[in-house]
Design a protein that fits this description.
It is built from 1 helix and 21 strands.
Length: about 230
């Protein structure tokens, strides 16, 4: 059943984004010309660069201790194979701190007699809990390219016939222990008295309906690819 689920997920990713695992591509969401409705403060659309990888995402927090060092697993954060034929999963976060410095230890998922064990490679330590397939999400995860720029627009409200939006540009980081290179937030407005089209940084969208709490819109053109 697990492998059928993984196969269906892979087919879904391939059909929606027309990409294969480990293929670098630019993702734009949502699709152009599709109507969508979001609430105040919600993300309207975005562009990001990266690839989908074969990952496991634990649904639990746990850890082990070796001498004076802790090794941790964090819920809802993926660990991914760096190459399609890799045997181990590299976490997208620092799962150990040693002498004040963050480290990432690869994980290995062992299956013996239908019982799963999650182990930290090269440490000889595994989580003590007994695990099942239900403890993990085996779906491929999108991993942003380190150093690439993501762009997004959020809805920030309405005053009279003037709509306010926030443009957010951030330098992606592969690991959470690495500081962001830059994070830019700018506001811009759309005056409905002058028309229903909004444009910023090359992206164009049409406002269909808007209140101070929500907006219905569709993307005419995404951000130009860098």
């Amino acid at each position: 059943m697990k492998y059928l689920s993984i196969l269906l997920t892979l087919l879904f990713v391939s059909s929606v984004y027309a990409v294969d695992l480990y293929q670098q591509f630019t993702e734009n969401f949502p699709p152009a010309n599709a109507e969508r409705e979001v609430y105040l403060g919600d993300q309207m659309f975005f562009q990001r660069q990266g690839q989908y990888k074969d990952c496991i995402t634990p649904k639990f927090d746990d850890g082990v201790r070796l001498l004076l060092t802790d090794f941790n697993v964090v819920a809802n954060k993926p660990a991914c194979k760096e190459k399609p034929d890799s045997k181990h999963y590299m976490p997208t976060y620092a799962n150990s701190i040693q002498s004040g410095s963050p480290y990432r230890y690869k994980l290995k998922l062992k299956n013996k007699r239908n019982k799963l064990k999650l182990c930290f490679v090269n440490t000889g330590k595994c989580l003590k809990r007994n695990l099942t397939e239900e403890d993990f999400d085996f779906s491929p995860a999108f991993i942003a390219t380190s150093g690439s720029l993501s762009q997004e627009i959020e809805y920030a409200g309405k005053k009279g016939n003037v709509l306010t939006f926030e443009y957010i540009e951030a330098k992606e980081k592969l690991r959470e222990d690495v500081e962001d290179g830059r994070n830019i937030v700018k506001q811009f407005e759309v005056d409905l008295n002058e028309g229903s089209l909004g444009a910023y940084k090359g992206a164009v969208f049409e406002v269909i309906e808007a209140t101070n709490a929500q907006i219905k819109y569709k993307i005419i053109r995404h951000f130009p690819e860098r």
